[in-house]
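Deliverable D5.2: sample structural annotation.
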Amino acid sequence: MITTVEAFILAVMAAIVVAIAVPSYMTIRDRDADSAARSQLRHAGEAAETYRVDNGSYAGMSPVALGKVDGDLEISGYRVKSVHEKTFCLETTVRGRTWHLVAPAGDLRRGSCP
């Protein structure tokens, strides 16, 4: 049989373990979401460059058009936010964290398209 003091000490120790474990888990989960978002945008960016080579510009580019360029590209994984003849901005959100890719500069940054 455990005493009240022992039960209190066990509760405090459990609280300390939880206080350490939860933030670590959240950091790992956020890092994983960021990695997935960047990977999706890099893949879509490569397809966009192939689209430009095939069509002479980025004009008319859409997720469906990029899906035709690269059959492995998951077209629901990103959005084409702005397209001009020489530039574009792709955007994706993974677990509430949004990233965007502006090209042809290749800027891959956190947040929505400018």
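Annotation notes: The chain has a mean pLDDT of 91. Helices lie at 4-55, 63-69.
The annotation will be released with the project's public dataset once the embargo ends.
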